[in-house]
Design brief:
heterodimer; A: alpha+beta; 16 strands; globular; B: alpha+beta; about 35% helix
């Protein structure tokens, strides 16, 4: 870890991903009070996400890719899986069992790094040249974007399967479940809810069929840690009003407490972007927070790396090492700890101000994984225009996106509503005097 | 009607307009969204300890604030002073 460069400081301030995201479906203004067209947009249904968080994930209901049945057994003595319904056979060892990634969280010590998550050797080129096993011709694969290639001479298809030190080959891959048609439908549904104030050019050029399937590189981290937080909490002892009529004011008395909390916890499968570009979540310059939002994936069902899963899709390459991601992991572990202790300070009804925090990471386990994302992108022109993404989680179908707005329309609506409210206010003032 | 109330009422228009703008902007651009890892990660936590050491240190009388100053209970991601230990 001597020659690693520290990661860029994450953006802060309002609107940055440093804010805890709101609970889905909650709005700062009650939609019922808004004009009809706006309310209809807000209340239209969202694309449905499949819940993979529960039991289904634990028992690993891997479906047969041919018939969808889950009655699947390992064929004895081979690495093949067999569908007992349609007799279809295919490869697919879940890394969870294969390498025991789901177990022993409580006994984690030190830093365990899976072979595909090792430090990247900068000398290794991303262009890999292979001798075609079919005819002996040389074929080059650019691992920056693809992991399979077809030999120009004999049409033989092969993939990059051995782990090379340039970070292109992860430990595991989570194959796409959501089909392209489904992704297109979800993107369309998402955008249909956001048409009223959308940029005109965006609406004109909207072709969700251009969505591309991308495997994005992530580090899936298990960790065992303990955290201490300390601060002040206040309990209200009395509430009273003084003065009368318009001069009425409310006062509070309160007891101040010194508060300390300690929590030991383990985290299972926390995903971190392992591409520097994707990990930059500054909403002022990009919309990568959109892709960040569709996390998490049912990473329990990931299968051992096999480049065949990537044929027909593009991929991005990992370019960060474990040590560079560690600050972000610690930051997220602290956030999780703060969330965990929240309930234990319920009795401080005037809130708690945490002033100090401490994190001891006892052990971590890092696995490099390619996760499937359907990406639709729109490059907004003009000054301050950025690349807007609409992303669909390739497993759960969770959909999130950034739709560029037509500023003048939005301003006009805001001013109209503002003027209307001001009119009511003036009328009330006028009638009261 | 008092001046305070009148002023607040006059601010209704600009505040409503700005609020609507901000809400719709976020609804389209989703700049406030990110992975809610605090809620969405499988966390297995042992019972939180430390409640028995809560110690009353002071009291305040007659404040007009309804919440503690600098309340960051739910701002999980706002980092505060980090104490570095030997093992971290």
């Amino acid at each position: 870890m001597s020659n690693t460069t520290p990661p860029p400081v994450p953006p802060t301030g309002p609107g940055s991903p440093r804010d805890v995201p709101p609970v889905p479906g909650s709005y700062p203004i009650d939609p019922a009070t808004l004009p009809d067209p706006i309310r209809d947009e807000l209340l239209a249904p969202d694309p449905v996400a499949i819940d993979t968080a529960a039991a289904e994930l634990k028992d690993g209901a891997n479906r047969c890719p041919k018939c969808g049945a889950t009655d699947i057994r390992q064929r004895p003595g081979t690495d093949l899986l067999i569908c007992l319904y349609c007799r279809n056979e295919w490869h697919g060892q879940r890394v969870e069992e294969e390498f025991g990634f789901g177990e022993g969280l409580d006994e984690l010590t030190g830093t365990v790094i899976a072979s595909g998550a090792r430090d990247i050797d900068t000398d290794v080129s991303s262009l890999m040249t292979y001798k075609c096993t079919g005819c002996g011709a040389e074929v080059t694969v650019n691992t920056e974007s693809t992991m399979t290639a077809r030999c120009h001479w004999c049409r033989h298809v092969f993939g990059v399967n051995e782990q090379v030190a340039n970070g292109a080959v992860p430990d595991a891959v989570l194959p796409f479940h959501i089909k392209k048609d489904d992704a297109v439908a979800r993107i369309r549904q998402f955008v249909d809810k956001r048409r009223l104030f959308a940029l005109k050019e965006f609406k004109e050029q909207f072709t969700p069929e251009n969505v591309v399937g991308v495997y994005l590189p992530y580090m899936i981290v298990d960790g065992k840690a303990s955290a201490d937080v300390a601060g002040r909490g206040e309990i209200k002892t009395r509430e009273y009003t003084q003065g009368s009529g318009d001069k009425k004011k409310t006062y509070y008395d309160a007891d101040i407490y010194e508060v300390e909390r300690h929590v030991d916890f383990t985290v299972d499968d926390l995903p971190l972007e392992s591409s520097t570009e994707r990990g930059n979540l500054d909403t002022g310059v990009n919309t990568n927070n959109i892709i960040n939002t569709i996390l998490p994936f049912d990473t329990k069902n990931a299968v051992k790396w096999n480049a065949s899963y990537l044929s027909g899709y593009t991929s991005e390459k990992r370019d960060t090492d474990v040590e560079q991601l560690r600050p972000r992991l610690e930051d997220q572990l602290l956030s999780i700890a703060r969330c965990q202790v929240e309930e234990s300070v319920n009795r401080f009804d005037r809130g708690v101000r945490w002033e100090q925090e401490r994190l001891d990471v006892h052990g971590t386990r890092w696995v490099a994984m390619y996760l499937p994302v359907w990406l639709y992108s729109y490059q907004q022109g003009g000054k301050g225009g950025m690349l807007h993404y609409i992303a669909v989680n390739g497993r759960t179908g969770e959909t999130m996106g950034s739709v560029p707005v037509q500023q003048w329309k939005l301003l006009l609506a805001a001013i109209t509503v503002g003027t209307f409210l001001e009119g009511i206010a003036l009328w009330m003032l006028g009638s009261s005097t | 009607m008092s001046d305070d109330g009148g002023l607040a009422l006059l601010l209704l228009g600009p505040a409503g307009g700005a609020g609507l703008y901000w809400m719709l902007y976020r609804y389209y651009r989703n700049t406030d969204k990110s992975h809610a890892f605090e809620r969405e990660t499988v966390v297995d936590a042992k019972p939180v300890t430390g409640a028995e050491r809560d110690r009353k240190v002071d009291e305040i009388k007659g404040t007009r604030e309804s919440r503690i100053q600098g309340d960051n209970l739910r701002d999980y991601r706002k980092r505060v002073q980090r104490i570095r230990g030997d093992s971290s």
